[in-house]
């Protein structure tokens, strides 16, 4: 009886969030996606819990609501117990990361608060970030969208702070007028490899010898300094890059632009599966584009948190994600 009630709850939640099972998707994977989004919805709703009318929601309360919701779903739907390996701590870290990086919340010391609601039109749906709780919306991963018209107050590039300059323009802008100089000393450096190596890191210990400009980084304790580098007369010459262009993964704008410039940028593979699209990055997107993808998608498995390379997105949301990135020069390939 309990299992029947649990499945009824699951079906009701899937209908409320418009989470439809993919054409070739296993039932357990669909169940896990529903539970993941249900917990994300509860985590987001906790931002309005009136713990103290003079203060924002504490991170502790946010975590507690996630733990309660996870335990409730595992008790209600026993079939997910061994497949949903993410702990309450994993989920708390996951949703705090997605909400903060995606601009859904503002983070204060030990406190979080919802950001201003943003609404942007898409091809098949309307994207809503930091929505009012009164809105009737669908869910893709931990992101909200509507199939009904809502008056917009933003655009997708503005919503995720995505620069509309093409990758080629970004490369030309930062490479134009660079002044290179020889390394003054031997450094324990890593070199970004423009040619993608399947299953291997794109950072290696050997510099390229083809004369193309790439990235080099040098670690000193917890700090990393980045340089443009190239080989010139059989020696390495470099030009230091300001830290604001490289910190917190920002260097990926430069590495992606360089791969595009030299014709070595891999495709983003995707597979249509009815109501969902499986997306496989063959390299990690720059931070803001990755925030869009991660917020509006599910992980492929649910054993650990922060799975970034392979994601599953609602089919209604995918065309806008694809178009926005293709306009910047990213390439997609259906597989």
Summarize, please.
This protein has 335 residues and is of the alpha+beta class. 33% of the residues lie in helices and 23% in strands. It has three domains: 2-157, no CATH class; 167-261, no CATH class; 266-334.
**Approximately what portion of the residues adopt beta-strand conformation?**
15-25%
Task: Give the strand tally.
Answer: 18
Tally of helical runs:
9
> Which segments are poorly predicted (pLDDT under 50) over 5 or more consecutive residues?
none
Instruction: Please give the radius of gyration in angstroms.
Output: 22 Å
Q: Summarize model confidence as the mean pLDDT.
A: 93
What does this structure look like?
The protein has 335 residues and is α+β, with helices and mostly antiparallel strands. The protein has three domains: 156 residues, no CATH class; 95 residues, no CATH class; 69 residues. Helix content is 33%, strand content 23%. β2 and β3 form a beta hairpin. It is elongated, with a radius of gyration of 22 Å.
Overview features:
alpha+beta; six-stranded antiparallel beta sheet; 9 helices
């Amino acid at each position: 009886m309990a299992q029947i009630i649990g499945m009824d709850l699951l079906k009701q939640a899937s209908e409320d969030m418009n989470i439809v099972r993919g054409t070739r998707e296993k039932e357990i994977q669909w169940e896990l996606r529903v539970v993941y989004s249900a917990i994300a919805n509860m985590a987001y709703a906790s931002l309005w819990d009136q713990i103290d009318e003079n203060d924002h929601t504490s991170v502790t309360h946010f975590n507690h609501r996630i733990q309660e919701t996870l335990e409730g779903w595992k008790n209600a739907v026993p079939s997910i117990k061994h497949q949903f390996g993410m702990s309450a701590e994993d989920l708390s870290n996951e949703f705090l990361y997605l909400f903060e990086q995606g601009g859904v919340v503002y983070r204060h010391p030990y406190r979080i608060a919802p950001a201003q609601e943003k609404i942007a039109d898409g091809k098949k749906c309307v994207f809503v970030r930091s929505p009012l709780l009164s809105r009737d919306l669908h869910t893709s991963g931990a992101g909200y969208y509507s199939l009904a018209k809502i008056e917009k107050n933003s655009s997708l590039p503005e919503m995720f702070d995505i620069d509309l300059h093409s990758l080629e323009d970004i490369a030309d802008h930062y490479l134009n007028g660079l002044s290179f100089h020889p390394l003054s000393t031997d450094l324990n450096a890593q070199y970004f490899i423009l040619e993608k190596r399947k299953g291997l890191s794109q950072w290696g210990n050997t510099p390229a010898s083809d004369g193309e400009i790439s990235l080099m980084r040098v670690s000193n304790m917890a700090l990393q300094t980045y340089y443009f580098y190239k080989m010139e007369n059989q020696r390495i010459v470099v030009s230091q890059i300001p830290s604001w262009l490289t910190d917190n993964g920002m260097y990926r704008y430069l590495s992606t632009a360089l791969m595009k410039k030299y014709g070595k940028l891999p495709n983003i593979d995707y597979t249509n599966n009815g109501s969902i699209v499986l997306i496989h990055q063959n390299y990690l997107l720059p931070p803001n584009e990755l925030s869009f993808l991660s917020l509006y998608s599910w992980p492929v498995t649910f054993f650990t948190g922060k799975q970034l390379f392979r994601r599953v997105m609602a089919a209604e949301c995918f065309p806008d994600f694809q178009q926005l990135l293709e306009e910047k020069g990213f390439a997609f390939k259906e597989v």
